[in-house]
Design goal:
There is one protein chain. Helix content is 73%, strand content 0%. It starts with a helix and ends with a helix. Helix 2 (11-31) runs antiparallel to helix 3 (34-50), helix 7 crosses helix 8 (151-169) and helix 8 crosses helix 10 (179-185). The chain has 10 helices and no strands. It folds into 2 domains: 2-84, RNA polymerase sigma factor, region 2, helix turn helix motif (Rna Polymerase Sigma Factor, Chain: A, Orthogonal Bundle); 102-185, Orthogonal Bundle (Arc Repressor Mutant, subunit A).
Amino acid sequence: MTRYAGGDDRAFAEIYNNAARLILSFFWRACGDRALAEDLTHETLMRLLAHRASYRPGAAVIPWVLTIAKRLYIDHLRSRKQEQGSGTIEPHHEPLDPRPLADQLLERKSLARALEAAISRLPTNQAQLCRLVRDDDLTPGETASLLGIGPNAARVRAHRAYRALRYFIGDADATSFGGACTSFGRA
């Protein structure tokens, strides 16, 4: 992004390859409409093109791009609200029940605490990769580019982290962590 902000137009292809899927995933989760998510992804990338001068060299690119996406989505919701002339915005899809059963919520919180405790026992570089994959929903490959390491190094780091997590929490409990652990297995 630093190269692109500095005038190297060829660097945009690299930015596109690293960010487009993440942006599309963000919009898909937000609106549940594939066509709208694709349109908003395209618009986000166009805004990135138009506002590249506002990028601060050395700043993390993914949070900057996701901020542009979030602002665009808020603008989209506001324009829909004005078009509908009502005080509420209807979602494009049937919303999920936001109230999970109490025991499921407690189990998830307990598992999240156990996973965080296990991650905190990892070496710093492995823990950093785990948190980026878990908290920001990035693949190890996307995380590799964010961390400035190669994809193979990310796969090795993810594999070692996964092995260590399985050891710390036990093989049986590791399966209950769902995507947090299994995403490393697919790294």
